[in-house]
Design goal:
It catalyses: 2 H2O2 = O2 + 2 H2O. Its cofactor is heme. InterPro entries: Catalase, Catalase_3, Catalase_AS, Catalase_clade1/3, Catalase_core, Catalase_haem_BS, Catalase_immune_responsive, Catalase_sf. This protein is an alpha+beta fold. It has a domain of 284 residues: Catalase HpII,  Chain A, domain 1 (Beta Barrel). It is 26% helix and 15% strand. A hairpin with a 5-residue loop joins strand 6 and strand 7. The N and C termini lie far apart (64 Å). Bound molecules: protoporphyrin IX containing FE. The site of protoporphyrin IX containing FE has 29 residues, from strand 2, strand 3, strand 4 and helix 8.
Length: 500
């Protein structure tokens, strides 16, 4: 494994055309035939190699977040965080860590529109000296559901109908109306924040509560916020529709274009910090990803800046093959009991092994190149490392030369322990939670036009729902959050011709 920046990005190209085994190609225009007008010969390795490699050019697209754009840059920590975390890259103000960020829409296919109404993915890979930390968040501080068991069903309703292969408004609202914990995220999604003007003009959030752990093993609960320095800009319904047809790649183009001309986007990074022991008595379940912590309770503390200043030199190698996971962590950053997060810890590396193969961490864009990877994982498809050469491939071991040994003395590498009690079971979420309070507060926080646009965007989308019972159920949720909101949606749908 290399210990320097990914080499594929800097390798100069030879200008001599060769086959994949390095043989100079004499003729790239004419296949080898038996006689001038005869059939093609099997011995034409160049043709067979070229066609068969082409046949395999596509890897599976991401099952969600398939359409995206990415860029390189760095994160500079601007505060001394040693009281909160022992993560080496967060110790000293001024320390810069290289990063790769990828932004995405969620539901659409790889060729879908950048202007779709959808949350936006906000994923950042921090190449730290202690390994890679991936912050795999969204441009929204909350999510639709809070149990990973629901995720595949939820996503199916956002994709295409199994029979018609069309987007299905009935499935979309049927699921959401039967999973009312989604209302908070629905409120954000149907505000104009559901159609950001570009990736540069949106914020990013860890959404989940994560942990920071200091050198004494003391943990704090934190939420990460990335506030755009470009200012928030969103499309209205009409602008998004116009952009959809005129330039479905608008956000991809905007990000690449800005960086190409030296207009580097940046985000001010802040934390909300909570003492671990405060969680039990807080008004909201801090492990419920459908809830925020109001800033009045836990104000933002600025800790750094993320800047993107280099475009990928190859989209497939760097953006398509990038593999982010909430389980890629470093000492000093830890997981919490958030059930959704726990599900994600498994799901991402699992999909990477399917999408990119078991050695996906060896791909240059994914290599933890500032740390030295040393373990007993060997062989496997597409292993293009030195495969740890002749060193022993087991541990514990006592031979010379020695292989990698576990470092028991480094307590920082340990997970923090959590006290548990109770019996195993399938528990519904904290019954005292009120899923309608935060969405109602958000509705009331919106100013006149923001509220008008929210109602308009909902009405435009729900007009496509055929089953009136689904509409009524969802209106019930809006009304429960705020009676005026429910009434306005109902009136809007009636004006649009729905018989409710
Ligand atoms: C991508 C699963 C919830 C943010 C993905 C991918 C899967 C997945 C399988 C494709 C990854 C790849 O092919 O590389 C899940 C599951 C979830 C969940 C099972 C819930 C149990 C969330 C939440 C967020 C989120 C709550 C944000 C807070 C993202 C982002 C990507 C992604 C940003 C794209 C990463 C990239 O740019 O490559 N998710 N997800 N996901 N997910 Fe989730």
């Amino acid at each position: 494994m290399t210990h320097t920046a990914p080499t594929i990005l800097a390798t100069p190209l030879s200008n001599v055309l060769t086959t994949s085994n390095g043989n100079p190609v004499d003729d790239n225009q004419n296949s080898m035939t038996a006689g001038e007008f005869g059939p093609i010969l099997l011995q034409d390795f160049h043709l067979i190699d070229k066609l068969s490699h082409f046949d395999r050019e596509r890897v599976p697209e991401r099952v969600v977040h398939a359409k995206g754009a990415g860029a390189h840059g760095h994160f500079e920590v601007t505060a001394d965080l040693s009281q909160l975390t022992c993560a080496k890259f967060l110790q000293k103000p001024g320390t810069k860590t290289p990063v790769f960020a990828r932004f995405s829409t969620v539901g659409g296919e790889k060729g879908s529109s950048d202007s779709a109404r959808d949350p936006r993915g906000f994923a950042v890979k921090f190449y730290t000296e202690e390994g890679n930390w991936d912050m795999v968040g969204n441009n929204t501080p909350v999510f639709f559901i809070r149990d990973p068991l629901k995720f595949p069903d939820f996503i199916h309703t956002q994709k295409r109908n199994p029979q018609t292969n069309l987007k299905d408004a009935d499935a979309f609202w049927d699921f959401l109306s039967l999973a009312h914990e989604s209302l908070h995220q629905v409120t954000i999604l149907f505000s104009n924040r559901g159609t950001p003007n570009s990736y540069r003009h949106m914020d990013g959030f860890s959404s989940h509560t994560l942990k920071l752990v200091n050198a004494q093993g003391v943990a704090h609960l934190v939420k990460w916020h990335f506030k755009t320095d470009q200012g928030i800009k969103n499309h209205t319904l009409e602008e998004a529709a116009a952009m959809d047809s005129s330039n479905p790649d608008s956000s991809t183009e905007d990000l690449f274009g800005a960086i190409a001309k030296g207009d580097f986007p940046s985000w001010t990074v802040s934390l909300q910090v909570m003492k671990e022991e405060d969680a039990a008595n807080y008004r909201w379940n801090v492990f419920d990803v459908t809830k925020v912590w109001p800033h009045s309770d836990y104000p933002l503390q600025k800790i750094g800046k993320l800047t993107l200043d280099r475009n990928p030199s190859n989209y497939f190698a760097e953006v398509e093959q990038a593999a982010f996971s909430p389980s890629h962590m470093v000492p000093g950053i830890d997981v919490t009991n958030d059930k959704m997060l726990q599900g994600r810890l498994f799901s991402y590396p699992d999909t990477h092994r399917h999408r990119l193969g078991p050695n996906y961490q060896q791909l240059p864009i994914n290599q933890p190149y500032r740390a030295k990877v040393s373990n007993n994982q060997r062989d496997g498809a597409q292993n293009f490392s030195e495969n740890f050469r002749h060193f022993p491939n087991y541990e514990p071991q006592s031979q010379e030369p020695a292989g990698p040994q576990q470092q028991l003395q480094d307590i920082r590498a340990k997970y923090t322990s959590v006290k548990l009690n109770g019996r195993t079971g399938r528990y519904g979420h904290n019954k005292t939670d009120d899923d309608f309070v935060q969405p109602g507060n958000l509705y009331r926080l919106m100013k006149g036009k923001e509220q008008d646009d929210l109602v308009k965007n909902i009405v435009a989308h729900m007009s496509n729902v055929k089953n009136v019972e689904i509409i009524k159920r969802q209106i019930g949720h809006f009304s429960k959050a705020d009676p005026e909101w429910g009434r306005r949606v109902e009136e809007g749908l009636k004006a649009a011709g729905k018989h409710l």
